[in-house]
Amino acid sequence: MSTTTSARLNPLVARLAPPPVPAVQAWARGYDGARGALMDLSQAVPGYPPHPDLLAWLAEAAGSVAYAGYGPIEGEPALREAYAGHVAALYGGAVAAGNIHVTAGCNQAFFAAVMALARAGDAVLMTNPCYFNHETTLAMLGIETRYVDCAGENGFLPEPTAIADKLDGVKALALVSPNNPTGAVYRPDLIKQICDLCAARGVWLILDETYRDFLAPGAGAPHGLLAEAGWEKTLIQLYSFSKSFCIPGHRVGAVTASEAVIAEIAKVMDNLQICAPRAPQAAIARGLPALADWRAANRAEIGRRAEALRKTMAGIDGWALEAVGAYFGFVRHPFAGQSSQAVAEKLARERGVLTIPGEYFGTRLERYLRFAFANADADALRGLKERLAGFSM
Amino acid sequence: MSTTTSARLNPLVARLAPPPVPAVQAWARGYDGARGALMDLSQAVPGYPPHPDLLAWLAEAAGSVAYAGYGPIEGEPALREAYAGHVAALYGGAVAAGNIHVTAGCNQAFFAAVMALARAGDAVLMTNPCYFNHETTLAMLGIETRYVDCAGENGFLPEPTAIADKLDGVKALALVSPNNPTGAVYRPDLIKQICDLCAARGVWLILDETYRDFLAPGAGAPHGLLAEAGWEKTLIQLYSFSKSFCIPGHRVGAVTASEAVIAEIAKVMDNLQICAPRAPQAAIARGLPALADWRAANRAEIGRRAEALRKTMAGIDGWALEAVGAYFGFVRHPFAGQSSQAVAEKLARERGVLTIPGEYFGTRLERYLRFAFANADADALRGLKERLAGFSM
User: Fold this and answer.
1) ipTM, interface predicted TM-score of the complex
2) Total-model pTM
3) CATH number, domain A52-291, options 3.40.640.10, 3.40.50.10860, 3.40.630.30, 3.90.420.10
4) Does B71 sit within 8 Å of A63, measured CB to CB?
């Protein structure tokens, strides 16, 4: 890039590193296969295919003239209805189609929600560690990010008192539960405490629940916020259909919020996208009720994978699984003084285990790696013991 | 909305009107059908279906496990290759896959390109009239918009001297040709003159060519910029597959730019969307070469519709088609002193002719209506004579 070109770019974007997942995936090309097939624990994708019925419905809708034209900005009425019903049943709350905005994935849900609330110069509070795309979204919009530290000793959960100390002058608090990158699951009472703090201070709570369908089987509702009157004055809930239905390539997510906030998000979405892709919306509207058992079985399978990861890591000297939940384990490596990037890169090249360095998710995280374990089955995860044995920096 | 909620929203978004197309479409619900079926000339959509082969390819890709997962941020390699080849052939230029970024439609292409170049407080130069979503995109990002007036007497083309006077301190000039809303087609020599001005002043030229496939049959390349060495230092070209392939519901567009700019756009797109929906990308990669004849036939059909509109409007007293091209005619109504919104609304309710008021596209445009005539066939367009006869305010 000539200095002439670079000087004419938006510095808020230019100073950001390239997207991390492709950069990390490039390391895997240096792996020679000596330890067996590559274990890709980098991107948060499920390691099993979508249900064949869903593929058939996707094909049916995509091949239909009915979904070739523009659709409503806020989403297909059938999906808004079906998803509102699903949310209302899961949380026991009063949620209607008018509270739903369909987006092209959950990154877009976050982007649009943030734009509806905050402009350049405003501040948003997040956790450290945090999901890197939330951080870069705010950075490129010129929105100041502030952080609440979540310590490993506390299971990477935020302390409500620490949050209370930082709510002054912020437009929103952005949380992810089950958490990306740590896997930490925020308890319903903790979420309620935090939401009450936000409500009292007039701060929006943006709660990204992309991974909620992979809470431990038998867990109840992730929280009770939507069952309380007035939830919509504080809460903006984000969700992704990509993980539950194994269709990230089709790009469908959703926002649940007050009708007033949905109207603002619609203005943003009209500019970002006009409407989310329609055919997958039609397919998901059918799949939401019809594939509930299949999703429950996957939830149990991801639970088995989490358990396999837990047991395996407990038997590897020097390595510690400090948090685990939904799709992710947050792993402390044994190499003090080494950067997590150096460890992750060597692990990828020499042992064929692809993970994301902790430092990509915030500060003082050099000792951590994120294992997106959902992408590997329990057998493969048990093989980590052999992969990590004798690994040194 | 409680004042509490509205005070906590982003004022840059809150002060924008709701998206115009749905608002205009609501007027049609007041039409009683007395003059025949509703003529929807509001949204820029083609009034014929996609090719059956394309529908089959869309279905095939959407139903395939291969496209269910995440894809490359920049787009499917097959589509980037196919589209780069298409652009290189059309413009006689050196354009490779690395110069292409696939987006979820052309609104997103504009949004991502602008974010790659400009931050809140920067300025972008546009035309008056302009495409409203370009204006609202800039407004919600806090980017200052400046305007070059395009007069009806000049066929709504911008004057290079007027542009030269306004290039100081702007990051980019955004143009649309063939134009939305006016239909004005910028001649290759005018585009070159403007691009040279931008190059000399270090200003990016964002050229939205969403409607280029509907230039009059037999017209050559829309311009020669891509055939010139160094085009990528100034030009960022935007395109949409929605119109040519009649699939706006599938959301696929593209940016053509330097590799350095593509890398910046990829950072934005990773946050906006991760990747454009994959299945339609795969289908379009097949359709680009295979459906060239079908697209040429549609181009001829749209040309016939333009001709029908031209002839019909010439025979209606007091109404004047001041510009026409590609999808749009910009029509001067006879009612001095009336707002274009009042005229458009009454025309929709009483005569079942749905158009977009000129004032939605800029200032001093109260005398105009945009007719997106591509949505009606030549017979229906000839019927405008009867629909407009005797219409009064």
Assistant:
1) 0.96
2) 0.96
3) 3.40.640.10
4) no
